[in-house]
Predict the 3D structure of the following.
Amino acid sequence: MLKQEINELLTRTGPGTPMGNLFRQYWIPAMLAEELPENDSPPVRLKLLSERLIAFRDSDGRYGLIDEFCAHRGVSLWFGRNEESGLRCAYHGWKYDVTGQCVEVPSEPDNSNFCANVKLTAYPLVKIGDVLWTYLGDPAKKPPLPEFEFAQVPAEQTYTSKRWQECNWLQAFEGGIDSSHVTFLHSGGLRSDPLFKGAKGNEYNMKDLKPFFEVAESDGGLFVGARRNADDGKYYWRITPWVLPSFTMVPPRGDHPLHGHFWIPIDDHNCWAYSFDYHPVRALTATEVQAMRDGHGVHSDNIPGTYRPKANKDNDYLMDRDSQRANENYSGVRGIAMQDASLQESMGPIVDRRKERLVSADTGIIKARQKLRKAALALAEDGTTPPGVDPAHHRVRSAAVVLPREDSFIEASRDALTATPGVPQSTV
Amino acid sequence: MRQILLNSCAMAASAEEARFRIDAPIRGREGARVIALDQAANEVVRRVAGQPWHAARFFTLPAHSGNGNGSLTLCTLDGVSSGLAEQLAAADVVVMIATGAGDAHAAAAIGNACAVRGIMTAGLIIGDGREALGALRPYARVLMVTHDETDVTEVLTALRA
């Protein structure tokens, strides 16, 4: 349960809001690099943290992320011409470079300096891995670039997709640290999904439906450990890291790639779910990549040419009651990503957390909300830099390990939870 | 017969439809028990107990809390002794609070008694609490190690204690 004012604080991310200001302390995914595949490719209209923006890649390969609307008459630059190192408004030909600087106003005299005083709001846009990252905060406080392992391994070892999720970012993100739903909602996937099945750990998962949970703080956020009985009197631990504001990883299964998510607010009723898979020490196989493209694992099968899943709320997520009855899919919805999204969207655009009945197994969610609230308030009160800004906080991994009963999962897994180049993941 | 899909999710998940969710009052939790497992935890529990709660009951352990046969005596914050079994009769969650070492015997007695009765257990360790971790891990279905005392309040509030 949350008071309404705290729910408002955590869910509203527009300019000037406490949580919006918090998100504006971080480099966040703005779009996939594939959306701007070449120089002078068509500009892309996007909304982030309730700000309407346009992204483009100029003739020299520079990325720009600027106010969507021309300074002249407020026309959308989506109609613009991306040519000769700038984006030209289709209405009267005003032209902007990647910094938002107006560089040409054709109606003015050739030797006029009018355009020097016209500059649109612009944000940095930087390619790291498959993602174009941006920072929407104060330029004077721009932190170092992100160092998440999925974006830093060689290209053949990583794959990232994204999908539009039609609900507030917080209820989507909370699914990422809610380990207790996996055994139910995703039980079908543990048996059949090509990116999940076959791991020894899955047996432990399915044998023990009432795991114990431990929540421990980390420098960048939390580690949530789910503990089940393993063989020989040991414990099987699945450890999920969360790095503020919204980066989570799923504990691995066998030699399958590691995967995880970023949830980025589009506005208060919509978010992007970025989903990635990577392997720290080997290339992804063609079969694995095809499975990801087909919407298996944490990915979604999107409508071609869009980032909207084929199964969406307009078609009731292609609900299959026969599949539900036959226990192929616990909820009747196919695919892990859409199983999560369908339920999270069903909560409504922003779930009313005053009406929740939380149980102690939700302690990870309770703690995460507290950390977000405290980080937002500390930032507002005295400018405290929140956890997760420092790139050192990004060098985490999820892990699945079998440990002696007496071991602390944090201390025994310290190396396993640290992203170290060239070192394989710890998995069962 | 297969149900004919009517695209009902698109409408049902809208902000407009959220206005029609049944707005029945939610009763607080009647069965929350909060037990301090060591001296420093006693102080934490006393501070937390001073806040407004629905029906949560708060306890400490007396100096000699067990009789060796698995029973355990608790102490209300007013100093009144009460048997663990009596306090668990109507409990639905027990939250154990520890700081340094905790009391491993008490944790075991509480955990075992809760397991028999199907009562959920949670443990909050304030500080590093390495010893407390070992004491609580077998018996707390949910365990949080934190340096922030306000987590006790956060968890109990979320549980509607």
In short: Chain A has a mean pLDDT of 96. Chain A has eleven helices and 19 strands.
